[in-house]
Amino acid sequence: MEQDPSSFAAMMRRPSAYLPVAMSLAALAMVLGAVAVDLARGGAIARDPDEGAVAHLFQLLMTVQWPIMLFFAVKWLRHAPRQTLGVLGLQAAAWLAGCAPVYFLHL
Questions:
Q1: What is the C-alpha to C-alpha distance for residues 79 and 53, in angstroms, rounded to an integer?
Q2: Is 7 helix (H, G, I), strand (E, B) or coil?
Q3: pLDDT in tens, 25-70
Q4: N or C: which end of the chain has fewer CB within 10 A?
Q5: CB atoms within 10 A of CB 104
Q6: Where is 54: in which H helix or E strand?
Q7: Whole-number Cα distances in Å, 90 to 2, 5, 20, 55, 69
Q8: What's the rounded Cα separation, in Å, for the pair 90 and 43?
Q9: d(Cα 56, Cα 41) in Å, to the nearest integer?
Q10: What sign has the CA pseudo-torsion 104, 61, 97, 69?
Q11: Is 103 exposed, middle or buried (0-12, 13-18, 19+ CB in 10 A)?
Q12: CA distance to 7, 25, 55, 78, 98, per residue, from 20 (Å)
C-alpha cells in the first residue's frame, strides 16, 4: 500500500519538517536538564547574569529553526496547503514548548 507523498506522515519525514521539531525538543531537554541539575545541587534555580553554554545553545537552536521553517513553508504551502499548515502548527507548538520553561521560570 503506497502512501500519498503529500500526506502528513510523508511530510514529517522531510528534514525541513522534522528538524525544527527535533531542535525545539533538544532545547527543551537542555533547559529542563539544567534546571534539574540546579535543583539537585542547591535546591534553587541559579540565575547567572553571565549566560552560560546552555543559554547560548538554546538561543542558537531556537533561532536557527526559523529559516528552516520558512523554507518548508515556501516549498510546500502551494503543493499541499492543508498538510503543510499541520506541520507548521506542530513546529510552532514545539517552538512554544521549548520557550515555555524560559518564560515561566524567568530564566
A1: 40
A2: coil
A3: 999 999 999 889 888 988 888 777 778 888 999 999 999 999 999 9
A4: N
A5: 8
A6: helix 53-76
A7: 24, 19, 9, 24, 11
A8: 34
A9: 22
A10: positive
A11: exposed
A12: 19, 9, 18, 20, 11
Question: For the segment 9-27, what is each residue's pLDDT rounded down to a tens digit?
Answer: 999 999 999 999 999 999 9
Residue range(s) defining the domain that contains residue 58: 17-42+53-104
How many residues in the chain?
A: 107
The amino acid at residue 86 is G
Q: Is residue 1 part of a domain?
A: no
0.85 exceeded by pTM: yes
Q: Is residue 10 part of a domain?
A: no
C-alpha cell at 7: 500526506
Nearest to 7 by CA among 92, 79, 72, 73: 79
Residue 62 counted as domain residue? yes
C-alpha cell at 57: 545553545
Per the structure, the count of domains in the chain is 1
Sign of the torsion angle spanned by Cα atoms 97, 101, 103, 104: positive
Helices 15-42 and 53-76, axial angle in degrees (round to 10): 160
